[in-house]
Design goal:
By secondary structure, the chain is of the alpha/beta class. The chain folds into 2 domains: about 230 residues, Vaccinia Virus protein VP39 (Rossmann fold, 3-Layer(aba) Sandwich), CATH 3.40.50; about 80 residues, Putative methyltransferase TM0872, insert domain (DNA polymerase, domain 1). Helices cover about 40% and strands about 10% of the residues. The strands form 2 sheets. A 7-stranded mixed beta sheet has the order 5-4-3-6-7-9-8, sandwiched between helices. Helix 4 links the parallel strand 4 and strand 5. The longest helix is centred in the last third of the chain and has 15 residues. The two termini are about 35 Å apart. The relative contact order is 0.13.
Length: about 375
């Protein structure tokens, strides 16, 4: 049975009937066919990305103490558990209560796992609360898989995808008292909205998009994904030459999602905490999916390098062609890894060395 600390928002189901009830809300809205089933009635819609590369980056051992900071449905964690022995321990964190509900049914009989509802900024608090579970206060491996899961994208109740009509929500957790995307686009002033779209979506037509949104909401409240997508599409310059590129609304939806969930602030705090939580020789691996996330990870790692950490990926690893063909949503993934030194290492005499720019490209092998 999965044990849970009292501070956790914990979701637990102990029989197949309950598992089916937990999974039921997803049944009508999910169109993606399952690729795996755990036997409980809760299906796994999310295909984990770069599993083998993530395992290699973390260099897991049978007795490792691991935190999966983005547990989701446990795709990566399942692979990690295959390496962990009976003395290994894995703490799974996620801010999405619906994913945790499903994951709990899948790992209900796994004593090496504990699951808690938490944000990145709460990782240090959760590790301290689970010191008895780990038997230590430092970790051998920490893993982040950033972005939005297929479970979230395919759930039409959440509004993460504008390919189908849904409520304009975009919150990772509906338990958190934060404004939805609909609240933002209907109340934020035009200049602030343009800044959000530009800063978090890197949309060069942000002012035009913000103006179109403000004009549209004066006629009626914007409440649906397809409605907003159409407003943005009309506002963003788009020609026949753009055919085959990303949808004109992609950057605006990304910006709203990041803003609503405070994703970059959470990532900054979470990475700082994770680096401090590593035991000597411990490793941190991060999968990111867009340039804003990857830039934060890269700069955090460079800063840690000045303190003796060893960057294991001079260039980010990317999925191979076969994985992209099987799972197109993996195509933008970038994997970076870093190791805390087992002993103190000398820092470069050049205090500006960590600012050197290296070109991100395909495929450098991990250092062992």
């Amino acid at each position: 049975m999965i044990r849970a600390a009292s501070i956790c928002d914990f979701y637990q189901s102990s029989d197949s009937a309950t598992a089916a009830a937990v999974a039921a809300p997803f049944g009508a809205s999910m169109e993606r066919p399952t690729h795996a089933s755990d036997g409980t009635g809760a299906r796994d819609w999310h295909i984990p990305v770069m599993v083998a590369e993530s395992q290699a980056a973390l260099l897991l051992k049978p007795n490792a103490r691991v935190v999966d900071a983005t547990f989701g449905l446990g795709g990566h964690a399942s692979a990690f558990l295959n390496i962990l022995g009976q003395d290994g321990r894995l703490l799974g964190l996620d801010r999405d209560e619906r994913a945790l509900s499903l994951a709990t049914t899948k790992f209900i009989n796994e004593p090496r796992v504990q699951l808690c509802k938490a944000r990145f900024s709460e990782i240090a608090e959760q590790v301290a609360a689970h010191a008895a579970f780990f038997g230590a206060d430092a970790l051998d491996a920490i893993f982040f898989d950033l972005g939005v899961s297929s479970l979230q994208l395919d759930d039409t109740e959440r509004g993460f995808s504008f390919q189908r009509d849904a409520a304009l929500d975009l919150r990772m957790s509906r338990d958190e008292r934060v404004p939805s995307a609909a609240d933002v686009v209907n109340t934020m002033d035009e200049e602030a909205l343009a800044n959000v779209i530009y800063q978090y979506g890197e949309e060069h037509a942000s002012r035009r998009v913000a103006r179109a949104i403000v004009e549209a909401r004066q006629r009626a409240r914007i409440a649906r994904t397809l409605e907003l997508a159409e407003i943005v599409k009309k506002a963003v310059p788009y020609s026949r030459a753009d055919a085959g590129r990303i949808h004109p609304a992609t950057r605006t939806f990304q910006a709203l999602r990041i803003y609503v969930n405070g994703e970059l602030d959470e990532l900054n705090v979470g990475l700082d905490a994770a680096l401090e939580l590593l035991a000597p020789g411990g490793r941190l691996a991060v999968l990111s999916y867009h340039s804003l996330e990857d830039r934060i990870v890269k700069l955090k790692f460079r800063d840690a390098e000045t303190r003796g950490f060893a960057i294991l990926t001079k260039k980010p690893l990317v999925p191979g062609d076969s994985e992209i063909a099987e799972n197109p949503r993996s195509r933008s993934a970038r994997l970076r890894a870093i190791e805390r030194p087992a002993v103190a290492r000398p820092v470069s005499k050049n205090k500006y060395a960590h600012l050197a720019i290296s070109r991100d490209d395909r495929g450098e092998e991990l250092k062992s």
